């Protein structure tokens, strides 16, 4: 078996409570997965389930509380900032809100070339490369001395992508890269990301709450609930036969393109909001909202395990749906 590009094991992040004496927040609670070279793994789940925190730990914007992050077979989770510097070039992040993630006082030339200058490139060389990257992501290189506010949301996200690609990364963590954009622009950015993946051999961890976008771009999908992965597997398996009640509920809320199918489909409405990660329920943390919950669910947490023989898909449920 070849070594995966990224292997995350038992990753955990506990934030101190926001107020004095409030309970610590276990935002990510023992997350494990792998991303192969050239693959796109989708990470989905409701707001606050820990998607961004997971992504930020992988690119080391956050130091994990525990667990390991192996990149190219090397544990990078605990490297010092200095030891991490050469590896930073290989792991990059694209953010949700393109305008707020770009410094409004810097020109595009500066924004895109900064990561190269940090790595020791000469200013003229970095500027030349920035112009090349603008062309690669579908921007006009002559606009290199403009400021972010002179670009539309979609164009600004192209700048964010060009900045992420400046150091020729192998893995890009894209945190809701299209959620803030108009639907028509979303498709253009998704197309761009797919083309860049083919041309540059990139791997993506693609974070989104929109299951239609995930279906379009991902090879495999991980579903998160309250800091944990509850189902992970090939996209075809998850979308055609979701095994976890939470995955089923999320999918049942996605509109179907065929109006007849849309009228007759089963809809599963989840009760209430997700509980706070500062006070997760005992047993299976999904039990207060699960239509299938039984006694054991209230006391015993289900482990993430292979649900059906011969399938790579894993599910954390005492009573997974089969077939
Ligand atoms: N710096 C922090 N300090 C304390 N709690 C935090 C911090 N960052 C995130 N959290 C909490 O951790 C949990 C997970 O947050 P995270 O941003 O990772 O979720 P998310 O899945 O990305 O949500 P969204 O879809 O809204 O972006 C939330 O309960 C959040 O309030
Ligand atoms: S373990 Fe029980 S409560 Fe949890 S998802 Fe499965 S059936 Fe529902
Ligand atoms: Mg987020």
UniProtKB/TrEMBL annotation:
Keyword vocabulary terms for this entry: ATP-binding, Nucleotide-binding, Transport
PROSITE patterns xrefs: ABC_TRANSPORTER_1, ABC_TRANSPORTER_2
Keyword Nucleotide-binding: yes
One Pfam family in the UniProt entry: oligo_HPY
Highest rank taxon of the organism: Bacteria
SUPFAM superfamilies in the cross-refs: P-loop containing nucleoside triphosphate hydrolases
Domain ABC transporter, chain residue ranges per copy: 6-251
GO molecular function, one term: ATP binding
The keyword Transmembrane helix is annotated on this UniProt entry: no
InterPro entries referenced in this protein's UniProt entry, alphabetically: AAA+_ATPase, ABC_transp_ATP-bind, ABC_transporter-like_ATP-bd, ABC_transporter-like_CS, Oligopep_ABC_C, P-loop_NTPase
CDD domains cross-referenced by the UniProt entry: ABC_NikE_OppD_transporters
Family classification: Belongs to the ABC transporter superfamily.
Protein name (database record): ABC transporter ATP-binding protein
Highest classification ranks of the organism: Bacteria, Bacillati, Actinomycetota, Actinomycetes, Kitasatosporales
């Amino acid at each position: 078996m070849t070594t995966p590009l990224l292997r995350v094991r038992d990753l955990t992040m506990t934030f101190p409570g926001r107020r004095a004496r409030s309970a610590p927040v276990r935002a990510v609670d023992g997350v494990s997965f792998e991303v192969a070279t050239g693959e796109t793994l989708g990470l989905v789940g409701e707001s606050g389930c820990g998607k961004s925190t997971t992504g930020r730990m992988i690119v080391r914007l956050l130091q994990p509380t525990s667990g390991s992050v192996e990149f190219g077979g090397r544990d990078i989770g605990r490297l010092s900032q200095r030891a991490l510097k050469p590896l930073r070039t290989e792991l990059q992040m694209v953010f949700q809100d393109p305008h707020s993630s770009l410094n409004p006082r810097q020109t595009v030339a500066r924004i895109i070339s900064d990561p190269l200058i940090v790595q020791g490139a000469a200013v003229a060389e970095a500027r030349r490369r920035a112009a090349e990257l603008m062309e690669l992501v579908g921007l006009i290189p002559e606009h290199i001395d403009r400021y972010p506010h002179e670009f539309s949301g979609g164009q600004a996200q192209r700048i964010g992508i060009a900045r992420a690609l400046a150091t020729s990364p192998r893995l890009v963590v894209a945190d809701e890269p299209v959620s803030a954009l108009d639907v028509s622009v979303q498709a253009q950015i998704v197309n761009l990301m797919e083309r860049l993946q083919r041309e540059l051999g990139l791997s993506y961890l693609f974070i989104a709450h929109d299951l239609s976008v995930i279906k379009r771009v991902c090879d495999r999908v991980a579903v998160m609930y309250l800091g944990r992965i509850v189902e992970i597997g090939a996209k075809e398996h998850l979308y055609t036969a979701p095994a976890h009640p939470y995955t089923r509920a999320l999918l049942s809320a996605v509109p179907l393109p065929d109006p007849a199918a849309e009228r007759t489909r089963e809809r599963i409405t989840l009760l209430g909001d997700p509980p706070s990660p500062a006070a997760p329920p005992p047993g299976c943390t999904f039990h207060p909202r699960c239509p299938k919950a039984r006694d054991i669910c209230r006391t015993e947490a289900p482990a993430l395990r292979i649900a059906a023989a011969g399938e790579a898909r894993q599910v954390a449920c005492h009573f997974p749906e089969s077939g």
